[in-house]
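Margin note: ligand = flavin mononucleotide.
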Amino acid sequence: MAKILAFAGSARAHSVNKKLVHAVAGLVRDAGGEVTEIDLRDFPMPLYDGDLEEAEGAPESADRLYAIMKAHDGFLIACPEYNSSITPLLKNTIDWLSRPREGEPRLGAFAGKTAALMAASPGGLGGLRGLVHVRAILGNIGVHVIPEQLALGTAHKAFAEDGTLSDNSGAQRAADLASCLVRTAGKLGE
Ligand SMILES: Cc1cc2nc3c(=O)[nH]c(=O)nc-3n(C[C@H](O)[C@H](O)[C@H](O)COP(=O)(O)O)c2cc1C
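Resulting structure:
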């Protein structure tokens, strides 16, 4: 069974991207995947600084997250678009996690993993432009990012009371993405 780690590139309590992660995590389970949902709020890291790294090493939260990422076959990520790009929270997390670790393979948290990307925004494009950058960054550190993705526009109106996606086409696209992620991560993780 494919083990998927699900998280958002926003720490905000009322984040629509966290809501999207939660909704689609349920669909990943429906598709036969095993999902661990985490909140990057629980993995605080200072802004990456080479001098800090040299003096103190990686933050304890990066060590914890590294172990969790290594134990999964794939990632389900919903990242908000900030000025047409990735959020500093997600980029900083990737930067710390991409650093070499003694006794560990190069890019051990990322290389060979499978990822499905999503974004949610109150705007009409749903964060589509930011995903171009997230895709490129992850691809360049060895992640197989599946071609399918979900950019959910008008996201503040997209969820039902129970947290599921209320819009029919959004719900179907999310279910398709979830099953594609489970299928691909299952095959590549064999
Ligand atoms: C610094 C900043 C830049 C933003 N830039 C964009 C943008 O380029 N495109 C967009 O659709 N929304 C943009 N937004 C609005 C976010 O999509 C919106 O705040 C969204 O709710 C953030 O995601 P979250 O709810 O998961 O925290 C921006 C928000 C911030 C704070």
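The longest helix spans residues 168-188.
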